[in-house]
Amino acid sequence: MSETRYDAIVVGGGHNGLTASFYLARAGMKTLVLERREIVGGACVTEEIAPGCRASTASYIASMLRPEVIRDLELERHGLRMVPCEPGLQVAFEDGTVLPWWTDHRRTVAEWAAVSETDARTFDRVDARLKELARYLQPFFLEQPPDVHARGWAKVREGRRVYRRMRRIKGDEITDLVEFLTGSLGAFLDRHFESEKIKRMYLANNVYGMHAPPYRPGTAIGLLFHLLSGGDDDVQGWFGHVIGGMGSITQAMAEAAREAGVEIRTDAPVAKILTTDGRACGVALEDGTEIAASVVASNADPKRTFLGLVDPADLPDGFLGSVEAIKMDGPCAKVNMVLSEAPRWNGMPAEADLNRRSFATLVPTLEAAERMYDIAKWGEIPDDLWVDCVVASNVDPTLAPAGTHVMTCFVQYVPYRLREGTWDDQRELLGKRVVDIIGRYAPNAPGSIDAMEVLTPLDLERRFGLTEGNIFHGDLNIQQLFFMRPVPGWSDYRTPIEGLYLCGAGVHPGGGVTGAPGYTSAHKILRDRKRARR
Ligand SMILES: Cc1cc2nc3c(=O)[nH]c(=O)nc-3n(C[C@H](O)[C@H](O)[C@H](O)COP(=O)(O)OP(=O)(O)OC[C@H]3O[C@@H](n4cnc5c(N)ncnc54)[C@H](O)[C@@H]3O)c2cc1C
Question: HSE on the CB side for 158, CA within 13 Å?
Fold first, then answer.
């Protein structure tokens, strides 16, 4: 047993673990972060992919990073710089045109009117409505979800809290909200829009990373999630490039945490969460070292935590079954490239600046996405894929030497479990398909690839510790959100083991680089500690 005893140990140095550790240390708790990899950051890192060339190897765009977290951790003082993506989204089509979604609403309406005047008018109305509705959900983003199991006075308090948040909501807003929480994105788009291109703009933005095709009930929720605000200025639907790659966020967070007194150890994989009398009392590392702490907060996903680090005898009947049932089955891959010249996207206007040239989403039609999902669902790699390309070096010269370019490509839908063969055999095929698809939209790109890394769902699991390669620590479907996340009955960051908490994307409000689960879980720990002292 290590001689030093901590008030809190955080298992995992992802951005949520670092955020949680900061708040715990700031409140005076002696806090230790243990990260299995050689770097902190989890899926929010910058890594070298070829000599002298660095890329955001997993997450690649900042969108919902909470302003509270940016402010409290003083991330800017610790070196964080973000540049708004302009446009926030841009789709390239097979007919050699590109269509941007500007942050300036009027500019988007004007540009979309050239595709369909009716749809541009509808966009004006629908966007305003979605933004209003998203504002009702916004406060829950940094609070624990409503406790539907509360009893007695606690139940009254929960009822009041929800009432305060929703008291201004009107009847027709409730019906719309129900539609967005339960309906399908495809049905919504077909009902409101006529142009296939405009529908594809929405598709590109909304089932990102989800294990669902666009016509699956529940997928319309992405329309609201995407409008939760983020960035320094708390803007709805904000997107930003991070200078130095996404790892600059977690490097700044680590600096803030250290300054608050947190000790961070890398290359320190935790093998077991230790308990005495059903209470967490520390951890054992893979090398056998045991470290004592009064509180353990796990930034590892719920499956990794409960199926890998905890003794099943410490868990109540049925709990493990609920954890095993969490839908993970990651449907995404990532391909990171070094290019000798920037891609020249078909249809990109000659006057487009570098920021605009850094974005091209190659998104299928709704029907093609549905078919693609079906193929992947049965364990096959679709011929056609949905590829989101970001040439970050266009706006960030720190990533690669002058004249060299870095492009990251997020890929959807691929299976985690292949029907035949293994991902180690199929990795090259996936890379080839992605390159062929990009070549259709930027013919110069395939011939300019100097280096490429293909991260299949299995590689995401192996490298980043994401169970089944799920980028959100559990699919973001309605059955796994709010008070259902991570499992029904345990959505308040506590676990059946006293003193053990979850602080990563597997808990409310879920995945993405937000800092929200880290913020909220740390505040829960601090409240419990205060109560225990009283
Ligand atoms: C390919 C990809 C693309 C994405 N794109 C975006 C994007 O553009 N924008 C966005 O907002 N989000 C994106 N995401 C999602 C986002 O990155 C994640 O949801 C988020 O980073 C999760 O943060 P976290 O801190 O909760 O967990 P993680 O980042 O997963 O961190 C968990 C940490 O725990 C460590 N760990 C696990 N087990 C142990 C153990 N036993 N001992 C010690 N350490 C352990 C892991 O190594 C890891 O560092 C993407 C994710 C991926 C993978």
Answer: 14
Place of tokens 């500007």: 102
CA of 497 to the centre of ligand 1 (A): 24
The verdict on whether omega for the bond into residue 509 sits within 30 degrees of 0, i.e. cis, is yes
Distance 43 CA to ligand 1 centre (A): 3
In the chain, the amino acid numbered 434 is V
User: What is the spatial distance between Cα 513 and Cα 235, in angstroms, rounded to a whole number?
Assistant: 15
| Helix 516-533, helix 15-26: angle, nearest 10 | 30
Note if the bond before 486 is cis, omega within 30 degrees: yes
Q: What Å distances lie between residue 101 and 53, 200, 317, 318, CA to CA?
A: 29, 11, 50, 46
Q: Nearest C-alpha to atom 27 of ligand 1 is from which residue?
A: 14
Which residues are CB-contacts of 81 (< 8 A; sequence separation ≥ 6)? Answer: 242, 243, 244, 248
Give the C-alpha separation, 242 to 245, whole Å.
5
- The DSSP secondary-structure symbol of 134 reads H
The model's pLDDT over 66-104, given as tens digits with 9 standing for 90+, comes to 999 999 999 999 999 999 999 999 999 999 999 999 999
Q: Is 14 in the pocket of ligand 1 (CB under 6 A)?
A: yes
Determine the straight-line distance between the first and last CA of the chain, rounded to whole angstroms: 30
510 lines ligand 1 (CB under 6 A): no
In the chain, DSSP finds a helix count (H) and a strand count (E) of 17, 20
**Ligand 1: centre distance to CA 42 (Å):** 4
Evaluate whether 384 touches 345 at the Cβ level (below 8 Å).
no
The finding on whether 334 has its CB within 6 A of some atom of ligand 1 is yes
In DSSP terms, which residues pair with 105 in a beta bridge? none
DSSP letter at 382 equals -
Q: What is the pTM of this model?
A: 0.97
Residue nearest to atom 7 of ligand 1 (CA): 59
Does the CB atom of residue 304 touch ligand 1 within 6 A?
yes
The model's confidence at residue 266, banded by pLDDT at 50, 70 and 90, is very high
Give, as one character, the DSSP assignment of residue 14. B
Other CB atoms within a 10 A radius of the CB of residue 127 amount to: 17
